[in-house]
Known about the structure:
heterodimer
Amino acid sequence: MPVRRYLLFIWLVIHLGLAARLNSASAGLWAFQLSEGSALTHYARLTGLICTYGFFSPRVASPCFLEIGLAAPGRNSEVRPHYLSFASHEARLRFHSFSTIFLDLAPTARDGFARTDTLLAGRMAKAFARSVAEREAQRLGKQLRYFRILVYRHPQLAAYGGETTGTLNYLYVYQTDP
Amino acid sequence: MYTKPTLNEHWIAVLRIGTGVVLLACFASLWPEYSRMYGIDGLADVRLFTLQHPPLGILAAVPAGTWWLLPGYLCLSLLLIAGLATRLTATLLLLLHYHLFTSVYAPFSYGVDYLASSCLLYCILFPANGYQATFFLRILQAHVCIIYFFAGLGKALGPTWHNGEALWKAVTQPGFESLFKPDLLFLGAYPSLWVAGGWAVLILELTYPVFIWLPPTRRYWLWAMVGLHLGIALLMGLYSFSALMIVLNLSAFYMPYLTLAKHKTGLSIPPVPPPATGGETPAGGVACADTTGKRPYV
């Protein structure tokens, strides 16, 4: 069936072209932004082209951490910091990848973290953090007192001799009413 | 008279089985925490995820946390490995994979999920019976080359791979737990090591589309890339991602050039001198001479 064969050939050529286009954009060569909701975006997402290869296997190199302050039910109970932990390595990796969205709260580009864009992205990051913190507190049967989003800055190789430990900065702090 | 060797068509099976095994292992590892992350009462409100990535069509009616999706995913992975109704299985698995991982819950996903989607698409499109296998092989090879070339180009355009910072950060930054994670912070005193490593990765990826095609250098680039992915797996704990990249490399540039005789009998066949004219040499293997006047493997 030659028609079917030609159609398949055309499809695969377009598929590879889109792969090359998205990969070149991710290499910073030629900007290309797919609009969310378009058919092309859905196609790229379905076929895996939307996320291009990187040494970090995109997005897992998140420097962000979520610290949750939890206390036992009761007014004067002690508040303890809590970090999400996972029994499964895959789950830990996926949460680490997820925490990349907190970079949308980075105030400036001076810390070396690329600031993404809009106010909406920042609000979404806060909403996600609050949702995770509240659900984690609920899961553990504790009260949520605060949560903080921290960003870790690894010591630079060039300055390693003088700066052997990383630094932590707060990107966002949320305190609940006691 | 020299006849151009036919490519070993088992690469399609390696791609299919490798993809199925990686998906199965990845999902089995995620299983204990699946409902905590993706369930209705999961880690974060599903409405937030939906705001970012609206679900597609009919899939919206089936929440990702629905109980039967999990055994369904495992069964489809097993069917894919077994090669039963490959196209139908791969189609259903691709849709399910999209629904569970790369659609609404895309923020939880990472590279392996998207690479797996690409592999599943190829399992659907590539024929299992070897019909026009060479054409489909070229598509896969071109895709792998595109991936590495632009990854290398991206590294070449920025400064962090030239001065070793990126490699240093990748290997020593906390957050990447793995079974084998030596403390390499002390190597920070030797920046030239990191600079050399950064350049090695950059050159390896950038030149991959050239040297992987040349028979004399193919084996070196292939095994260097496999070594790189083993290093990523061990030092960064990205097991599934590395395994899938290795599957892609072996499917695209090792299996097709492996002679069928060697594939069947291992290394027991006596080595024979390669043909005088240049043919495609198996990566990491010895070319099989045509001593019978027939094509070496059909």
